[in-house]
Amino acid sequence: QFLKAKQTEKQKQQGLLSSKYSQAKAMQPTIDGPTTFDELDLKYGNHRGAKLDALKARVSKTVAVKEEARAAIAEYESYDKAEFLLAGNPSPKFTSKTDAEGRFALKLPSGKYVITANTNRDVFGPTENYHWLVTVDTSNTNQPLMLSNDNLLETKCDECVKF
C-alpha cells in the first residue's frame, strides 16, 4: 500500500510538471552550453562598449533560462529517485546487517516481501548513495539475493519493484 501511494503521488506530481519538463528537455542541448559571461566571452571573443552591455544582458537572460530549465528537469526527475520513493518508508518487519564481506541473511516466513536496502560510500569525490527495492518470494526456500549495481532501484531489473 505504501508503494502504491508513492506511485500515485509520483504520477500526480509528474503530471503537473510534465509541460515544463518537456520544454526543458527540448532545450537540453543548449542547457549544457556556455552559461557565464566569461565562458561566452572566451568562445565568441572580446567585446567592448555597447556590444559588451548587450552581450551581458543576453548572457544574464540565457543563464536564467538555463537555470529554470535545469530546475524543471531536476524537480520532475526527483520523483523517480530513491530518496522520494523511500521517504516515509514504513518500519521494517525484519532487519539484518551485513558482515565484513557484505553478506547478510534474513529468516522470513513463507510469502512475498519487498527488501529495502541502503548504503553509501565516499570515493575521491561526492558520497555515492545506493538504494535497492527488490521483491522476493520465500516460498522457494533458501532463495539467494545478491544486491549489486545490477539491481539498484534505478536499474529497473527483473526483481526490482516496478514503478
What is the spatial order of strands in the main beta sheet?
1-2
SSE succession: HHHHHEE
Describe the sheet with the most strands.
2 strands, antiparallel
Mean pLDDT: 81
Compute the number of strand runs.
2
Summarize the structure.
It is built from 5 helices and 2 strands; from the N terminus they run αααααββ.
Topology record:
Layout: H1 2-26, H2 28-31, H3 37-44, H4 49-78, H5 82-86, E1 112-122, E2 127-137
Antiparallel strand pairs: 1-2
Helix pairs in contact: 1-4
How does this model look, in words?
The chain is α+β, with helices and mostly antiparallel strands and 163 residues long. It has helices at residues 2-26, 28-31, 37-44, 49-78, 82-86, and strands at 112-122, 127-137. It is elongated and about 75 Å long. The two termini are 13 Å apart.
List keywords for this structure.
44% helix, 163 residues, 5 helices, two-stranded antiparallel ribbon, alpha+beta
